[in-house]
Amino acid sequence: MELTAGLVWLLVAAALVLFMTPGLAFFYGGMTRAKSALNMMMMSFVAIGTVGIMWVLWGASMATSNKDNFFQIFANPFSHFGLHGFTEPADLLKVGYAATFAIITVALISGAVADRAKFSAWVVFTPIWATLVYAPMAFMVWGGGLFSADGWFGQTFAPVIDFAGGTVVHINAGVAGLILVLIIGNRKGFGKDPNHRPHNIPFVMLGAAILWFGWFGFNAGAAATVEQAGLIWINTLAAPAAAMLGWLAVERFRDGHPTSLGAASGVVAGLVAITPACANVSPLGAIALGVVAGVASALAVGLKFKFGYDDSLDVVGVHLVSGVIGTVAIGFLATPTQGAAGLFYGGGTTQLVAQTLAALFAIAFTAVMTFIIAFPIHKLMGFRVSQEQEVVGVDLSLHAETAYEFGVGGHGGSFQPLHELITGKPLGGEPREEGALSAPEVAASSNGKKNATGKESVGA
């Protein structure tokens, strides 16, 4: 079969979406403390490995094969195991494109548990969650399952409109992040320690730029016509631009100054909101949707302090909140030229009811399934590092390396001052002298106090 322009665009779009996960690593990595940056970035990168392999082996079969399914929730994982039977010329391209969505959805969750999650537990969690939560949601919405035109929900209410992942990606990731936070608990000093602030805002802005760039492939990769692709492109420009301005306006009136972090976060909020609606709203509707999402997420990120849950990098405030807004807004703003009309375009409440119920279902389904997956992992192997490891930093304690060289021996490899913390054994196997501090105690006691040289140590 000849490689058509549409297949070439799908190939490019898949590469753009895959590039978004390293972009997310920069976005999240810059928002953490310096001593946790590498671990945060690794949580995104390892999702490419675990979810990528899972998708090739059985994930694609669960999400895209409709011949043999379980109550319209997921398809048979063995019908196309290892991509056997995907023989049509464009099949593998479509599988690859779908895999990039699964990967970044899982990576998004990690921001909620920054600074304190065990890397080993995360590695175990990612393919299980992608199997039991992401793949079923993808099948129900996109694979001909429950929410499709042929599914029970679609025939009873209306087929759910979710062009690029409001329910499947963003509500899914936001709810999963919240459940993990509730299971793992808050960071030491949450809401009190000023050192929890982002350590590298330029990385955050670089990550946001990469995400925005890749998002044109995320939203427009499945465009069926030139006209639809053009509409999606404009909407993917307009909504995040409006959301950024909305977020900055909230900061200006609430805090007295707009911030770079707010600009980057506003862009992401707008991208999240337009994702499900990108092919079904007008450019004016996209601007309105972006403003609402930017303002709402800017206000929502502060709720974690009010309610006491430590959503470290605002996965709940941005992805869950803006994901719900974008999904439900379709019921108001969908234009008749692109399919079912929303309430504001004379379509009545049918689509609005369908969108709202789908969002509620996604929240409930993901919450229950994530708890079923994460709670046993937490009990059996521990999902959280020790307090000593958290104080020293998960980069050193889990990976034996640091993101930055501060001139005091922070480097990759066998980091001798923290050998006991990393391996559980004193350096050289020699017993500690009576009264001597352990590595974690040295790190904790030197945080903000004078060290042996008389200089003040500052915790990163």
N-C termini distance: 56 Å
- Rg, alpha carbons: 23 Å
How many beta-strand elements?
A: 2
* Rough outline: globular
> In terms of per-residue confidence, which ranges show pLDDT below 50 for 5 or more consecutive residues?
412-417, 429-460
Average of per-residue pLDDT values: 90
Measured as a percent range, the helix fraction is 55-70%
Number of helices: 17
Give the SSE order as H and E letters: HHEEHHHHHHHHHHHHHHH
Strand content: under 5%
SS content category: mainly alpha
Oligomer: single chain
Main sheet strand line-up: 1-2
Strand count, sense and closure of the main sheet? 2 strands, antiparallel
Descriptors for this entry?
disordered C terminus; 1% strand; 17 helices; globular; mainly alpha; 460 residues
In short:
Helices cover 62% and strands 1% of the residues. It is an all-alpha fold and 460 residues long.
What do you see in this structure?
The protein is an all-alpha fold and 460 residues long. 62% of the residues lie in helices and 1% in strands. Strand 1 (69-70) and strand 2 form a beta hairpin. The protein is globular.
Helix and strand arrangement:
Layout: H1 5-31, H2 37-64, E1 69-70, E2 74-75, H3 91-109, H4 119-142, H5 152-156, H6 166-184, H7 201-220, H8 226-255, H9 260-274, H10 283-300, H11 303-307, H12 315-333, H13 350-380, H14 387-392, H15 394-399, H16 419-423, H17 439-445
Antiparallel strand pairs: 1-2
